[in-house]
Amino acid sequence: MARRALLLLICLLLLAPLAGVGAAAPGAPGAVPAPRVAEPEPEVTPAPAGPTGPAETAPPATEAAAATPPPAVGSPPAATPIPRRPPLLVLPSGAEVAVIPIEGMIYDFTTDSLRRRMERARAGGATVFVLSLDTPGGVVTSAIDIAKLLKSTPEPTIAWINDQAYSAGSLIATSCDYLVVAPSSSFGDSAPVSMVGELAPTERAKALSPLLNEYRDNARANGHDYAALQAMCVLGVELYYVEDPATGRRHVVNQADHAVLVGGLSPAEADEKIAAMADLAGTGSAVGRPARELADAASAGAWRAVEQLPSGRKLPGGRLHDGSTLYTLSQTEAIDTGIAEAEARTEADLQALLNAASVSTVGQTWSEALAMFLTNPFVRMGLIAIFGIGLFVEMLAPGFGLAGGVALLALAALIGAPLLVGLSEIWHIGLMVIGVVMIVIELLATPTFGLMGIVGVGAVLAGLVLSTVPSSGGGPVPLPAPGTGGRLASATIATLLAFVVTGFASLGLMKVYGRVPGLSRLVLGDAPAIDARSAPPGPDADGAADRGPAVGETGTVRGGGLRPSGSIAIGDRWIDAVSAGGFIEEGTAVTVVEVAGNRVVVEAAA
């Protein structure tokens, strides 16, 4: 009897670690890919099944303790990620979900708009925030601000990569509590870049340090494998998918961890090997260099490579990524490796996945949307053309009219919209003002188009282009932020096209206006017929008619007026002249105020 009782007790002890495990079978109908846990957690009560399948629970505490060996003496301590929050499918059912789209370039306005929309959603009763991401990236500092905002938010946050989230978008996605992907979506490729060429080692280390620090914090807070996030930012980080046979835990690790866990090297040997490879590559700075995150002496050779992902992709030797490029993931690989929890195609899928009471989209306000629309490079192309044509028509017609009003409205949109969304810097506006002043001086000082006019046009062009591109850096002249080359190129092309359109439109207007009733006075047409009484005489015998005018002489405007150039008559002489100010109508008395070679400047007589 005692022997049977003893055998029964031994059986119970052996079966105890298996209690409470109830994961959905991979590939089972309706099953959602189970969320990965970065570190073994204490045993928990199994979560109730969600709408698309039961949730996976963490390994028991006894098994976790046995699977976590102590660090070797003298070796760097292995990383200890903070256990991630409860799995996605155990969020409280009946949640009020607010979907906040983040699209296009990320910069300071994105941060401010997100904060305002979160406050509006919270006031409306939202209990879960979903960020729908479709972005090529943007300014790193703005992305870090958004990441800190999300990690300090009391409500659960979910990143829904709905097409793409590269660069700064990847940082935002991994800062959320949970990550969901849409079909055919991708993310990654998050290295800092410069608009002025390759970064020097010191500058690259300076740019990488805060970025990697934020990614490491994301990994610790949300249970991601840091190696995968590091490989998005740094070349040379190889990735392997490995498994602990004793616990079934799977992780994405770098080559340093792989050399110990699977290769069986000691931590010291692995560290020496990585350092030697870095010296051979000439990387210099240790910032971003692969280092052991998980392995220690006790785990040497105890893990094995995962040769095939759940989706069927083969991984020879467990290698996910060879490090020759920056790491990017498709939605399939993200779910296979546990970086993403689930897949959702539509908001209805999200609602079913979260068992939410409602899902609503919180878009930008009309003023935010209008400002964003007006800063689109090709919308600005139209505004520049409208401003240039309106200004040209207004210059042809004395006084202020409809064309001038339209030009002023276009100018207000060109300057005001970038200021409202935080794109334009003060020096951009100063550059445009200086350019306009130089053009005006050139037009008033000489009838030819000289160096000052060309420089002025260049200054206006540069100001218009730069005012639509996010800036970064301190000092009085912040330059375009890294990663904004595409927007800078499109803004340049659009602005140049606008100048070309304005030029051709102005030439066309000069011809058309002459045939429009009531507007023929705006532009000089063919020379009017001159009868014998007003025709200029030829030179007399001693050439007196060819004598140039002197400063102070007076005459009368002839030949249709000065607009601003034309002809005046002084006595019986006709002389080419230019107005010192505005247009002067035919028949007006004028006084010569300047003579420089063949150039005669006059103004209306007092």
From TrEMBL:
Q: Where in the cell is it found?
A: Membrane
An example Pfam family from this entry, by short name, is NfeD
> Which SUPFAM superfamilies did the record assign?
ClpP/crotonase (SSF52096)
Which key words are in the record? Membrane, Signal, Transmembrane, Transmembrane helix
How is this protein annotated for GO cellular component? plasma membrane
Q: Where is the NfeD integral membrane domain?
A: 382-510
Q: Where is the NfeD-like C-terminal domain?
A: 551-603
Q: Where is the NfeD1b N-terminal domain?
A: 97-240
Q: Major place of localization?
A: membrane
Does the entry feature the keyword Secreted, yes or no? no
Tell me what topology the record assigns in the membrane: Multi-pass membrane protein
Per the record, the domain of life is Bacteria
Membrane-spanning residues where?
370-393, 400-420, 426-444, 451-469, 489-510
Positions with biased composition (Low complexity)? 52-67, 533-552
User: Residue spans with biased composition (Pro residues)?
Assistant: 68-80
Extent of the signal sequence: 1-23
* Region entry Disordered, spans: 29-80, 533-564
Q: Which PANTHER family match?
A: INNER MEMBRANE PROTEIN YBBJ
* Name the UniProt record assigns to this protein: Uncharacterized protein
Instruction: Please report the organism this UniProt entry assigns to the protein.
Output: Phycisphaera mikurensis (strain NBRC 102666 / KCTC 22515 / FYK2301M01)
